[in-house]
Hints:
With about 525 residues, this protein is of the alpha/beta class. About 50% of the residues lie in helices and about 10% in strands.
Amino acid sequence: MTAYVVLARRWRPRNFASLIGQQHVVQALQNALIAGRMPHAILFSGTRGVGKTTLARILAMRLNCRETTTPEPCGQCPSCAEVISGSHPDVMEIDAASRTKVEQMRELLELAPYAPTSAPYKVFILDEVHMLSTQAFNALLKTLEEPPSHVKFIFATTEPRKIPATILSRCQRHDLKRVTAATLTSHLEAILTSEGIAWDDAGLQAVVTAADGSVRDGLSLLDQAIAHGNGTVRHETVHTLLGLTDQDAVTRLLEHLLAGQGPELLQALDQFHAGGVEPNALARDLLDQVHQRVRARVTRTGPVGPHSLEHLQMVYQTLLKGEGEIKFAQKPAQALEMMLLRAAYLRPIPELDKLIASLSTGGAPQPPPTPVRPVMAALPPPPPAPERVKPPATWEQLLSLAKEHDPEVHLRFLSQVACLAFDKDAGENPVRLHLQLLDDCFGTPEQFRAMLEPFLARHGMAGLRIKVDPPSGAPRPETTLEQNERQAREHRATLEQEVKAHPMVQRFMTEFDARLIGVEAMEQTS
Length: 526
């Protein structure tokens, strides 16, 4: 049986032109090669599988290629062939993660002063260079400060922040990007076409999404998908292979969560469990969808939706914290269920700018009423009709009624509206209530009216005509809370003047050089 060579190795680029997604780095290197300004030390940084080591090998090929007259290596001469096979005597590729000790670095650097045996340059490629110890970096530093003219260092790392600044300052750094989904898709399509492998778009897109910008990961996943699909790449097999979730079902689950629909959320969650979806995978998909909604809101590329950015952020933080807990839970499915219920019953958070505006005006806003979904069910027999009580005829009486029977409505009356009119008929029955919202922090006039109507109906005022005006910059009457605060300030000021004018207080202040700090009214006791 002929040994199989995986796609990631078989399709590894052999020249700059075939390297995808890093044109900004390729162009800089080609310009330096043409101008003869190639530095003695280069650092390639970037996430896994984007071409750091591949780019280092291509550059080493080009530096020692004697047959080319262009920025590209010829790929055919003995020098290029030796670099490709890993047997070039003057190109040393070292895994820094396995040679972290200072003694090993010194052994390597002892080769630097000697001239190359068969090529223009002696090239040292150090992969994952951030893994070197502090002493190894110190040993390397001296050679980087005064390198021989025939030596080139090429470093690759996924974590440049772990490299000492003294090393970074002596390297020309190139940051490689994640390969975009469109670029990776086109690349994989070309490979599948060349290999004669059938695929469908949904399956290939699932592979690209799972690769997350890594060409090597994409090719490795493609190899697995081909093996599982018996020589094809189909969405069904990729879905099973990667343990992917149905995104439409995830969207429905998120809608139940954001609407606070606990029973429906648990029912949808049971279906995911029955389908074998991993709890961590489902948590990550929910995080992705919340993130996408926030981005769409911020960039104004999607619908506004009923949920504030602040509420979506709180949901995201709850899911993010819960995802970490799932990893260490003895029962991950149970931990996921509790985490989603915790997020579902978060109290809705209003828009922050509206909340600040409300607080700055002295209001004490409350969350909007939770939407009530109609439920069809058999109704119990109606209770006996209560004794008819005369409805309130003034705004003050209406406030007292709300304070006694519905604290939430009472608080809204105090802080969120000003009463413009409360009309009654000849029989002292209320016929019209005209209010103005202080702000729209917790809803529109229509929403406030919808909240108020059930309360009025419960207390014999179902026929009361209600008008709620939106917030306005024009002068308006005070809210009851504002009126109470103003009256308290005026009363305190009057008391202070009376106390200051009292002869005993004046005498005390004169004899003891005292000053009056403040006056508080004492509650009367019976």
